[in-house]
Amino acid sequence: MDCYTANWNPLGDSAFYRKYELYSMDWDLKEELRDCLVAAAPYGGPIALLRNPWRKEKAASVRPVLEIYSASGLPLASLLWKSGPVVSLGWSAEEELLCVQEDGVVLVYGLHGDFRRHFSMGNEVLQNRVLDARIFHTEFGSGVAILTGAHRFTLSANVGDLKLRRMPEVPGLQSAPSCWTTLCQDRVAHILLAVGPDLYLLDHAACSAVTPPGLAPGVSSFLQMAVSFTYRHLALFTDTGYIWMGTASLKEKLCEFNCNIRAPPKQMVWCSRPRSKERAVVVAWERRLMVVGDAPESIQYKQLTIQVLLDRLVLRRLYPLAIQICEYLRLPEVQGVSRILAHWACYKVQQKDVSDEDVARAINQKLGDTPGVSYSDIAARAYGCGRTELAIKLLEYEPRSGEQVPLLLKMKRSKLALSKAIESGDTDLVFTVLLHLKNELNRGDFFMTLRNQPMALSLYRQFCKHQELETLKDLYNQDDNHQELGSFHIRASYAAEERIEGRVAALQSAADAFYKAKNEFAAKATEDQMRLLRLQRRLEDELGGHFVDLSLHDTVTTLVLGGHSKRAEQLARDFRIPDKRLWWLKLTALADLEDWEELEKFSKSKKSPIGYLPFVEICMKQHNKYEAKKYASRVGPEQKVKALLLVGDVAQAADVAIEHRNEAELTLVLSHCTGATDAATADKIQRARAQAQKK
Amino acid sequence: MAFPHRPDAPELPDFSMLKRLARDQLIYLLEQQHEVDKLYKVENKPAVSSSEQLCFLVRPRIKNMRYVASLVNADKLAGRTRKYKVIFSPQKFHACEMVLEEEGVYGDVSCDEWAFSLLPLDVDLLSMELPEFFRDYFLEGDQRWINTVAQALHLLSTLYGPFPNCYGIGRCTKMSYELWRKLEEEEDGETKGRRPEIGHVFLLDRDVDFVTALCSQVVYEGLVDDTFRVKCGSVDFGPEVTSSDRSLKVLLNAEDKVFNEIRNEHFSNVFGFLSQKARNLQAQYDRRRGMDIKQMKNFVSQELKGLKQEHRLLSVHIGACESIMKKKTKQDFQELIKTEHALLEGFNIRESTSYIEEHIDRQVSPIESLRLMCLLSITENGLIPKDYRSLKTQYLQSYGPEHLLTFSNLRRAGLLTEQAPGDTLTAVESKVSKLVTDKAAGKITDAFNSLAKRSNFRAISKKLNLIPRVDGEYDLKVPRDMAYVFSGAYVPLSCRLIEQVLERRSWQGLDEVVRLLNCNELAFTDVTKEDKASSESSRLIMVVFLGGCTFSEISALRFLGREKGYRFIFLTTAVTNSARLMEAMSEVKA
């Protein structure tokens, strides 16, 4: 019987360990790792190797090779490095490889060695080069921190949403710090650096000196520092061979240990076993490994969520396995299967040897209209691979036309984008496309495009009406829309112009436009207005008072009220004011003036074209019953009853109505019989009615 | 008075939820802005505030953006820095941001949206309070509000369950409806499985029925709107109503017990009702006499407050009534109504035309004159060329030349048009239609229609029996049909359409009417096969008016509801009336 404990070795006093090979590494490394930049992704992700040819002793002419292996050493990718010298490698939380170059450019690769994008860590770096760089992980994503040749730090806390933050200067820093690391506290990224015996904490606003509590005296330099994965703990290694372990906030010391080795360690990292409450720091030298531990305290473990696990499978193109897991776990389609299918489709569009038609068809066959699948996302990926035609084909499957627009714009298919935006019914989207088009096309083409899209045209017109009047005019001109052009000038004649000459000129343009629009009526009316405006101006000069901008009617009324009857008559003739209007006008004006004598004279000047009932009415409105009665007698028979009722002569009105034998008139009079005084009249009418019925 | 609902009439949904939602969102938005210490009305004048931050709550209009930009720029000139926030309601438009950008203040201002699109004005009336909808869509062809309408419908269906049966007519209706459907599909599952509360939804465009909106209103609520202008469910009664030197702001809704009893009544009944009510009230006050101390104590503690409240309301409405009577019972108003009725019925056209001409010559009112011209045009399929020219000339002489633009607007909206040469063929056409099948006649009419969109009011009126044949006097105290809202002379076209479609549960059999309305492709029925609506909710009907509805239409449908055991809910872009429609079309010198 084997002894179970045979392969367990003691570690310290109370712990034992054993070596146990899970699997052997499949890789076939030709070079020594010491010559390579190495980066392993967190959570057992891939490993990247870049043989470093930029070391001085190597010939620079040899192109290095970037290799990516799975955690078990399975080769995933291998490519020739054609870009500049690399300072540091690191994996983002999304398993993208970040390669920080000496010139500050960061190149981003996928796990299969596919180039994704690049960004720069700022212009300052171009001159000063990057001395050192770190890729770190926070709860927001993955960040990059660099140290430049000018001994300044720049960092971005999330490369997915790149915002560069240049850290303040460290006072008196003349050479590179002996060691440094990024910390993340209160959701903000900091840099901790060591210069001689001093430690500094850099945040975006300030540089402050810090001292770890309980640090043993006699330290003249820090050789290494290590932060735990969760940023909770910090370990410092000093030139006295002393290790300080504490919280990253530098508020508390956990333990200290003197190992009496003064050589700088190659590496120092925090480690701990799953579910163990023990934390430890592992320090490595060339031929020695040391584990330093401390008292128990709980450590949080971030578990990989199922979503992240699925992402990992997808990244490794293990689509069927991922789908099986989704189905097994009964994940909702949107989170599960459709998302994986969408990823598969994004991969599919990168297969350059398959024709656009075949790819589009294959994707549509598999995806159909699975909920949660965004064809526009897949199309965007296709466009990213330079397959514009395929992208357009894929967009056709996108049911929400609004979703198609942004990509179409990006692909410079603005006109197609415009029709899709209109289809979506989202006017804001239409407007966005319009602004794109406006910048992209020359004015003529832009207007032509609008012409074929009435909805977009009216939207743009509305905007121009308030914001760009000149453009509005051009739009009408382009369309030969003379009617609207005329209206435009009319509006300008009172809204934009102030001087009479300017206003008349605007009206002239309007009239010309109306003639072109074959709108004779509007043209004539506009010409009349030009005449009137000039005349009003003259009246103001000659008579004083206010005339400009009055309507024709009001102009004449003002003249009558001012006692300029002759001028009024002349104006009425010149502008062919119909008789009826003139009579109403003069009647009202004279009554307003209470010039009853003149009114009577006027009433007798010729036979009234509006009859005499209006005279009765207007006099009564001015509460002049005496004058009203005068005119009541002159009212023709068919309006006699009304006139008598107006002046309050109910009895006589009744007589006339009875005489007329008019039922409607009788009813009307009866409705005016109120109170006791009219009782007799009411009786009379009733009798007359009864008599009429007998016959 | 105030007919009760049938006992089986459904309950109305609780719309106060909409208010709560809107309020909470606004509070959230304002809290982000920290303390709000003072509210100002956005007017075109400089803001006199020493605050470090300014927050604007505005409609997404370009004019408002220029105002904000001018304030920011003035501050900049004065070397002042503050924070600015614009909250758009109900939504932000890209064009607005564009203006901020062009004015160079985009970076200084932060923007937010307050998605408040439905204001419950009453238990059965939701308003989007977008009076500009009418002009924007029906005149300028601007479709920006369609999305807002779709969002509002979406909100309602989220809160009150899916809409199992929908009907609609009109271009804007169709677009809004389709957009709403898209929204529902995108957020599939939210309303799935819920029981519908609102059994039927009917949507219609204002331009399907301009006639009703152009008529003078004679039911009390409509008349109050025409006379005093109801704004957001409340009205300012001036000194002539309050018989004091102060104005009084009065909320007009179902909470006002007196108003609730008279709002839907023909005006001729209102005064009699109010005086009867006053007498009853007096009698109740009078009971005090001869009470002993204990009874008096009871009376004071329990009844007096209610009586006083009623007394106050009563005197307000009596005051309003008197004021209306002063204006509306005169000869002029009677003549006006007579002319309107003649236009609706289509007789004495020459006489009506002369009446309108006189109306213009006498400068009675620019808006009223315009309204009558439009009513004449729509009921007559456009004015004959001679009248079209002469009425316009007269109008320009009376009210000023800028109205040349007003006429251009009215023409574009189809409110005031000239009979096209093709229209003289109407007689031929009607003869043809007797000879050939309806379908063939339809094709011929369509051909004519392509020349000019005609209103076909006369033909529609005949088909739908809009002018009731009256034997003897129409008893306005005991209305027999919806025509009572126009003194028994005319059943509102919009309401009749709704009645007919609800009866048929589709547009079936109304093809001819739809064709005459120029809505061949624009009338739709979308009915759920397995209708899960309870019998109660299937009698709860929401009517959506795009471009505004009038109080007369609301009264008419409330009447229909009482007759048939339905309850109607009204959703409108804004409450409107003839004056508002005309003002929306008018050009005025700024």
Automatic annotation (TrEMBL), chain A:
Which residue intervals define the domain Vps16 N-terminal in the entry? 4-302
GO biological process terms, alphabetically, are: endosomal transport; intracellular protein transport; vacuole fusion, non-autophagic
Q: Where is the Vps16 C-terminal domain?
A: 373-691
Q: Which GO terms describe its cellular component?
A: early endosome; HOPS complex; late endosome membrane; lysosomal membrane
Record localization:
Late endosome membrane; Lysosome membrane
- Principal localization reads membrane
Query: According to the lineage, what is the superkingdom?
Result: Eukaryota
| GO MF annotations, alphabetized | actin binding
Instruction: Classify the protein's membrane topology as the record does.
Output: Peripheral membrane protein
Q: Which family does it belong to?
A: Belongs to the VPS16 family.
The record's subunit annotation is:
Core component of at least two putative endosomal tethering complexes, the homotypic fusion and vacuole protein sorting (HOPS) complex and the class C core vacuole/endosome tethering (CORVET) complex. Their common core is composed of the class C Vps proteins VPS11, VPS16, VPS18 and VPS33A, which in HOPS further associates with VPS39 and VPS41 and in CORVET with VPS8 and TGFBRAP1. Interacts with RAB5C. Interacts with STX17, MON1B. Associates with adapter protein complex 3 (AP-3) and clathrin:AP-3 complexes.
Q: What is this protein called?
A: Vacuolar protein sorting-associated protein 16 homolog
Q: Which organism is it from?
A: Enhydra lutris kenyoni
Lineage, top ranks = Eukaryota, Metazoa, Chordata, Craniata, Vertebrata
UniProtKB/TrEMBL annotation, chain B:
What is the recorded membrane topology of this protein?
Peripheral membrane protein
Gene Ontology BP annotations: protein transport; vesicle-mediated transport
Instruction: List the record's Gene Ontology CC terms alphabetically.
Output: clathrin-coated vesicle; late endosome membrane; lysosomal membrane
State one Pfam family annotation.
Sec1
Q: Is Protein transport found in the keyword set?
A: yes
The cellular location(s) given in this protein's UniProt record come to: Cytoplasmic vesicle, Clathrin-coated vesicle; Late endosome membrane; Lysosome membrane
Recorded hits in InterPro entries, A to Z, give: Sec-1-like_dom1 (IPR043154), Sec-1-like_dom3a (IPR043127), Sec1-like (IPR001619), Sec1-like_dom2 (IPR027482), Sec1-like_sf (IPR036045), VPS33_dom3b (IPR043155)
Q: Per UniProt, which keywords does this protein have?
A: Protein transport, Transport
- Gene3D superfamilies, A to Z: 1.25.40.850, 3.40.50.1910, 3.40.50.2060, Syntaxin Binding Protein 1, Chain A, domain 2
Question: Would you identify the family this protein belongs to, as annotated?
Answer: Belongs to the STXBP/unc-18/SEC1 family.
What is this protein called in UniProt?
Answer: Vacuolar protein sorting-associated protein 33B isoform X2
From what organism does this protein derive?
Enhydra lutris kenyoni (northern sea otter)
